[in-house]
Design goal:
The structure holds two protein chains of two kinds. By secondary structure, chain A is mostly beta strands. Chain A has one helix at 2-17, and strands at residues 37-40, 43-48, 51-52, 56-57, 76-79, 82-84, 86-90, 96-98, 105-113, 120-127, 147-153, 167-168, 179-187, 197-207, 231-233, 238-241, 244-247, 249-257, 262-272, 288-297, 303-306, 308-311, 316-318, 329-333, 336-340, 343-344, 353-356, 359-362, 368-370, 377-386. In chain A, a hairpin with a 2-residue loop joins strand 24 (329-333) and strand 25 (336-340). Classes of the chains: A mainly beta, B mainly beta. Strand 2 (43-48) of chain A pairs antiparallel with strand 4 (74-82) of chain B.
């Protein structure tokens, strides 16, 4: 009898192998919830001697007691285990642009629970040092470091960052297939220059729901049993250290610096001297020299409140009343020219121009704004006399 | 004559007792999964192991074994097995040596060969039933099951 049974089994398995392929895990689809008991009970009806007999329900170990209904036989059952799996992606399609010193710059990520039970996450973010990582698909050289890197999470899978709804910490109790936006918030250093880049890396680990990220999901190491909900960490996220398997995913996003880039050139022309007048004047004592500061913005954004200070040698004095009747500094941005008066000692007219401590200081009350593009040049002129 | 009647009635008594406590067929259902086993020489083989580590998307194989433990042949043997909730029948996987295969798409009320099943949609359209529509699988043994004989029926499901 045994030989017949074995033969049948072999035959059946061979038949199965043909044309059957191993089923892959569905990606991102909510599967049957962990802990669900899947039951089955077959029923056999038969006749003996032409007389129909009471049917017999199956049991896992074999049942021969006839009877109709759930009190006869027993379910063949197993419990669906818990699959720990998730995806972590960046929502940013390009590096997030910021200006030097700008705080609370936000890169955006999405964590999605693709397991079959609710899940929490332990999140951390770090500034990356050097390398070429994220810039919206292209590589970007990491030249600066973000400061004050923090991780927040949003109320759902789609809402953009809002300081009113984003919560500092770890998202918890995400249902199967649920996603949450995650925001890495950081500050750009003041020293950043135009076109600098910085990358950040978000790390997510699945954590036991309700633990607020404190207890990581750990794969069940002990032998599996049919009746228990064991934890299985999907290969896509599995991370094993010293025999303990937890989950881990990292994703990068980046920042790019958008700033003015100012280049300053200073030129001097002798206007007149006491001997030659304005004909081929020479830089001799008593001569008047005009300085021209040309400030060009070749950066990506407008430079606001441009100010400068020009220390002068003791041998020089600022020439007075040389422009626009009674003023001594001209400021031209694009086609627009204005003037200010640098008084000696104190800025009595509070126009922001003053000559004190052997330096000309120009920081106009109406700020100098140098845009990018066609009018990206400011020209400042003033004259000195050689003592 | 009296003696014979006594024997007959005794036989009847024992038969009645048997009918209440034990039928002629031992029915067993097991849920298993394929496992790849690597032998010492590196060769791999697929074996069936009890379903324990089951996750969505995994395959579970149900095998119903039915053995005639009586003393007479059992005829008209029909095994009916509901496709378990949370699983989908794997197309073409039902297999039972010497059986005819029937399927139900109405919770086991009616059965027909796979080719004859049609689903009437709410919008009035009719389509051929697919594996996902099956609620029950029926294996009809073509021949009698002789005393001591074992037969089995098997099919595969995918855990949703």
């Amino acid at each position: 009898m045994m030989s017949v049974r074995n033969k049948l089994k072999t035959l059946a398995l061979t038949g199965f192998a043909l044309g059957m392929t191993a089923a892959a895990l569905p990606a991102g689809a909510t599967g049957t919830a962990a802990g669900t008991s899947i039951t089955n009970r077959a029923v056999v009806s038969y006749s003996v001697g032409g007389v129909s007999q009471t049917s017999i329900n199956s049991s896992p170990t074999g049942n021969s007691t006839p009877g109709v209904g759930s009190s006869f036989g027993a379910d063949t059952a197993f419990v669906v285990d818990r699959l720990v799996n998730f995806t972590l992606t960046t929502v940013d399609t390009a590096a997030v642009s910021g200006t030097p010193g700008q705080t609370l710059l936000v890169t955006t990520f999405l964590v999605t629970n693709t397991g079959n039970d609710k899940e929490g996450f332990a999140l951390s973010a770090a500034n990356l040092v050097g390398g070429t990582v994220f810039s919206g698909g292209a590589t970007n050289t990491d030249t600066i470091d973000m400061a004050n890197v923090k991780v927040y999470y949003g109320p759902d899978a789609t809402s953009a960052y809002s300081s009113g709804t984003a919560v500092l910490g770890n998202p918890d109790n995400l249902a199967a297939d649920a996603g949450r936006r995650v925001f890495v918030v950081a500050d750009l250093p003041v020293a950043a220059r135009n076109a600098d880049g910085s990358n950040v890396r978000l790390t997510a680990k699945a954590a036991v729901a309700g633990s607020a990220g404190a207890t990581l999901e750990t794969a069940t190491n002990a032998a599996d049993t049919a009746g228990s909900v064991d934890v299985v960490v999907a290969a896509a996220v599995a991370s094993t250290t010293a025999g303990v398997t937890t989950s881990l995913r990292t994703t990068d996003s980046g920042y790019t610096v958008s700033a003015p880039t100012l280049t300053v050139t200073k030129a001097e022309v002798v206007i007149s001297d006491p001997v030659n007048g304005t004909t081929n004047p020479k830089a001799i004592p008593g001569a008047t020299v005009e300085y021209t500061l040309t400030i060009v913005n070749t950066g990506a954004t407008t430079a606001n409140g441009v100010a400068f200070s020009d220390p002068m040698a003791a041998e020089l004095s600022l020439a007075q009343n040389v422009y626009n009747t009674n003023q001594n500094v001209t400021i031209t941005v694009g086609a627009s020219t204005r003037y200010c008066t640098a008084e000696a000692g104190t800025d009595t007219n509070t126009d922001g121009c003053v000559f004190s401590a052997s330096a000309l200081s120009v920081n106009p009350a109406t700020p100098i704004v140098i845009p990018t593009g066609a009018n990206n040049t400011a020209v400042v002129k003033y004259r000195v006399t050689i003592n | 004559m009296k003696k014979l009647i006594a024997i007959i009635s005794l036989l009847f008594a024992s038969f009645a007792a048997n009918a209440a406590s034990q039928g002629s067929i031992l029915v067993k259902t097991v849920a298993e999964q394929e496992q790849i086993v690597t032998a010492a020489n590196g060769s791999k083989s697929t074996v069936l192991a009890p379903a324990k580590s089951v996750l969505p998307g995994r395959e579970v194989i149900y095998t119903v074994t039915f053995e005639n433990i009586g003393h007479e042949a059992a005829s008209d043997v029909v095994v009916t097995n509901p496709v378990p909730e949370h699983t989908t029948y794997q197309p073409g996987s039902a297999f039972g040596p010497g059986t005819e295969l029937l399927f139900s798409i109405d919770g086991g009320r009616s059965f027909a060969p796979a080719a004859g099943l049609e689903v009437h949609e709410h919008d009035g359209s009719v389509r051929a039933a697919g594996a996902e529509d099956y609620t029950h699988i029926r294996f009809v043994l073509k021949n009698s099951l002789t005393p001591g004989a074992v037969a089995f029926a098997r099919y595969r499901t995918l855990v949703k």
